[in-house]
Design goal:
It is a single chain. The chain is α/β, with parallel strands linked by helices. It has two domains: 93 residues, Translation factors (Elongation Factor Tu (Ef-tu), domain 3, Beta Barrel); 128 residues, 3-Layer(aba) Sandwich (Rossmann fold), CATH 3.40.50.80. The longest helix is centred in the last third of the chain and has 14 residues. The structure holds flavin-adenine dinucleotide (FAD). The site of flavin-adenine dinucleotide has 19 residues, from β4, β5 and α1.
Length: 239
């Protein structure tokens, strides 16, 4: 069935980083929507109706009354949202769709989510839902950032880690000065680091989303580097 397009006003706007912004799109009165955590919406401006772009929901299916997306300043749409979108603006929204979904059933799965930059957006939704529902699902996010200043959702993830003993937010920084006081991991995500996170491989599902080069890198690492079966990896390419 064709998805509906709905006019929504932008509510709260948060600059997560100097180049990354979360916008909240407010559902109109009496609007209700069943969707799944991990899906994406498509957005466009009323004055540029032919130019539509997809954005993963960074809010989860339990967040009602609005959708949130987290956008990096990149390309035409990414730049227009980060630089211009503000509270009170109207955007058109094509309702959620997509199959980049967390495997919460049966309980006992371990989701290993490989992310860099804004590719972490849907994983915020995964962890929010698992935490609020107190699910028996382990989630580990392996996040690559240039420096400690480039970690999206750092505070929220640290809070969620305290609340949910099954969630781990592991960060590696790739471009820190040598004398930086960061005592966490440095360097790129590699097969050894991913391997360290795996308990029972049979119950593990790997995820990666973001620009195509990141997906290629993650697939090589997991499928070729670790010899994991393709059925145990779910990816979403942003183009
Ligand atoms: C399912 C899905 C989910 C997505 N979720 C998110 C999300 O959560 N957050 C997010 O930020 N993005 C997300 N994206 C990407 C998003 O849809 C846009 O593609 C992105 O914001 C860039 O905007 P644009 O397509 O208008 O860029 P375009 O203007 O079409 O540019 C596309 C790319 O080309 C590069 N480019 C443009 N012009 C030049 C040039 N002259 N020289 C060199 N390079 C150039 C741009 O930097 C950009 O990387 C998602 C995409 C998909 C398919």
């Amino acid at each position: 069935m064709a998805k509906l397009r709905v006019e929504m006003k932008i509510g709260k706007v948060v600059m997560e980083l100097p180049d990354t912004k979360t916008i909240r799109l407010m559902w109109p009165e009496d609007y209700e929507m069943d969707f799944l955590t991990g899906q994406f919406i498509t957005l466009y401006w009323p004055h540029k109706q032919k130019y539509k772009r997809a954005y993963s929901l960074s809010s989860c299916a339990l967040d009602r009354g609005h959708f949130e997306v987290t956008v990096k300043r990149d390309g035409k749409m990414g730049t227009s949202i980060v630089d211009w979108a503000e509270e009170g603006d109207t955007m058109w929204v094509i309702e959620p769709t997509g199959k980049f979904l967390p495997v919460y059933e049966p309980p006992g799965k371990h989701l290993i989510c490989i992310a860099g930059g804004s590719g972490v957006t849907p994983f915020r939704a995964y962890v929010r839902e698992a935490t609020r529902r107190k699910l028996e699902t382990d989630i580990t996010i392996l996040y690559s950032a240039r420096t400690t200043e480039d970690i999206i959702f750092n505070e929220e993830f640290r809070e969620l880690e305290k609340e949910n003993p099954r969630f781990k937010f592991r960060v590696t920084c790739t471009r820190l000065d040598e004398d930086d006081p960061w005592d966490g991991r440095r360097g790129r995500i590699d097969a050894a680091w991913v391997q360290e996170q795996i308990g029972d491989l049979a119950d593990t599902v790997f995820y990666s989303c973001g620009p195509n080069p990141l997906i290629k890198f993650s697939e090589e690492l997991v499928l070729e580097g670790l010899g994991v079966d393709k059925k145990q990896m779910i990816v979403e390419k942003w183009g």
